[in-house]
Amino acid sequence: MIANARMYAQDATTAAAWRALLEWVGRSASVAFDIVDYPPPQPLPALWARPDLGCAFMCGYPFAHAALRPTLLAAPVPSPSQYGGQPVYWTDLVVEVDAPIVDLPDAFGKRIAWTTEDSQSGWHAPRLLLAAYARRHGAPLFAETMGPLVTPRNVALAVADGRADIGPLDSYAHDLLRRHEPALAARLRVIARSPATPIPPLVGAHGMDATDAQRLREALVAVGAAPPLASVRETLLLSGFAAVAADVYDALVADARRADALGYPRIA
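The chain above was modelled as a monomer; its predicted structure follows.
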């Protein structure tokens, strides 16, 4: 089997920390897997569909929408206080720090960046947030859309460099950016935030051996109290992992349908 943490391995420091964490989880669970590189722009859906998938982050919307769901293992609990010790996150809508944009209506008629259309934080959450405005003001809201940019970091760069005026950032990815790339993060300012939703979980392949899956769940839940991982948790702004029920992610599909019902099927 293979393991991968690409969704939150944003730079060399976080990539090394996730590798150390996954190696510890595999050893603790007595489940052998190779930790593979799968850098952008390689498509994440192809990774999630692999029959040898042992442990990888998966966005919650495609997980909930999948006809054959991967095996849910556990979800990360970010350590910053605003997460309240829960496996949740949200979308930060960011602009360049000195841009004359105070709120969402100020950004209308300008350029918006996005990650991929199957992303909760980079597409569906901002789409629902914008849908109410589109219903009142009419669509399109923006003069130009820029995507798919694939990763939150690419969205951050597009906004910071002035190629886009506004863009959505996964809040946990944003916190990791603040921690490990403070110069880039300092060029951004949050003007709006979506409601909190379940954070992307770690999953294994659909039909994964039940014993292996349970061992991995137990090892992941043990991450939060494991002394050898103290520095890794600190690097990753991670309290640990929590067991979560698969059906909590159904709310993401319901939210996408709400945006559809409001007449805003695409960010535009």
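The radius of gyration is 18 Å.
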